[in-house]
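Technical annex, item 7. During the second reporting period the consortium partners agreed on a shared format for inverse folding records so that results from different sites could be compared directly. Each record opens with the tokenized structure and is followed by the designed sequence. A conforming record, contributed by the partner at site C, is shown below for reference.
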């Protein structure tokens, strides 16, 4: 075995001796730092321009593998909604499992609130046939359900720090779904008024480099 082959073998052994989470983190960083086309960059910026945290919105969208296939705002919206639904189901299952394991009665009540909240939250992301402010209001309902969960945890003295990272992650996915719907609905109004899609407007592409 020559020196190059030995070096490659050693590198592989070192890499796979790292904790799984470290390798996953490296993968996530690679995904988020991957270059994207100017068109996709414009789409993501249009979706995130109203977000409370623009950079978090962008990075959350870029972390979704399917987002690279998006060619218009509707694609971004649909992908974001699908991921939000998946994440909501995961949260429901997480709290259901936690409820089953919990032995403190007061905590079980709190966790039951979250199970119900995320069950109801999933339905808020199903907006087929719903448009305009009605669509936005329906999606916003998911956030209201998540707040019910948090309130239930606090009211029953559950250590919210145990679940806060998961809740924050869910909020990020909710955010890109909400902003995706907002962008599509705003585009409809923009097109009706100006005769062009918002993402194609000269003003929209400013500051995207």
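Designed sequence (site C submission):
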């Amino acid at each position: 075995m020559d020196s190059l082959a030995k070096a490659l073998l050693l590198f592989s052994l070192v890499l796979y001796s790292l904790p799984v989470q470290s390798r996953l983190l490296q993968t996530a960083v690679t995904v988020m730092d991957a270059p994207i086309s100017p068109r996709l960059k414009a789409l993501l910026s249009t979706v995130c321009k109203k977000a409370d945290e623009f950079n978090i919105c962008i990075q959350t969208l870029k972390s979704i593998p399917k987002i690279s296939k998006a060619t218009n705002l509707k694609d971004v919206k649909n992908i974001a909604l699908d991921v939000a639904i998946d994440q909501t189901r995961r949260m429901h299952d997480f709290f259901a499992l936690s409820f089953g394991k919990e032995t403190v009665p007061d905590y079980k009540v709190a966790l039951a609130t979250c199970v119900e909240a995320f069950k109801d939250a999933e339905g808020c992301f199903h907006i087929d046939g719903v448009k305009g402010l009605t669509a936005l209001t329906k999606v916003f309902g998911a956030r209201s359900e998540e707040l019910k969960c948090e309130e239930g945890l606090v009211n029953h003295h559950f250590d919210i720090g145990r679940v806060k990272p998961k809740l924050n992650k869910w909020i990020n996915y909710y955010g890109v779904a909400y902003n995706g719907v907002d962008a599509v609905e705003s585009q409809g109004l923009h097109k009706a008024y100006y005769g062009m899609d918002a993402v194609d407007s000269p003003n929209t592409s400013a500051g995207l480099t």
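The helical segments are 3-17, 20-33, 38-48, 54-62, 73-101, 105-124, 132-155, 164-194. Residues 110 and 152 are 5 Å apart (CA to CA). All partners now use this format for quarterly exchanges.
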